[in-house]
Specification:
Blueprint lengths: L10 H25 L14 H18 L3 H21 L14 H7 L2
């Protein structure tokens, strides 16, 4: 059962809820992989880069799901996800957080005798 519920019965709402849910799971997996002690081969390169490791893990895990879906359905979902990725990359920007209330400098106040 998804942890994020659609906000309406529209198909896009269900797709957004699924994307948020999947993104959360992927974020947890990648965070866990990043926390592992680095393993290096003789050349100094990571033994298996995270994208490769994650790709293999997902391929093994999703094989049974793919077996129950037609190649056309998988191609349609893939095309939709590629459009979503491109649109998000083009239209969503991360900006620095603004701090509306700077933290008080207690040491400076003590020096001033306040």
């Amino acid at each position: 059962m998804p942890t994020i519920q659609p906000t309406s019965t529209e198909p896009l709402s269900a797709a957004i809820a699924a994307l948020i849910d999947i993104g959360g799971h992927l974020s947890q997996i990648v965070t866990h992989m990043n926390a592992a002690p680095p393993r290096r081969g003789p050349s100094g390169q990571a033994v298996v880069p995270i994208p490769d490791m994650l790709g293999g893990l997902l391929a093994d895990t999703l094989e049974p799901v793919a077996a129950t879906s037609s190649p056309e359905t998988i191609a349609t979902v893939t095309a939709f996800l590629e459009q979503v990725r491109k649109t998000m990359a083009d239209d969503i920007f991360l900006v620095p957080h603004e701090h509306s209330h700077p933290r008080p400098n207690r040491a400076a106040r003590r020096r001033r005798g306040a």
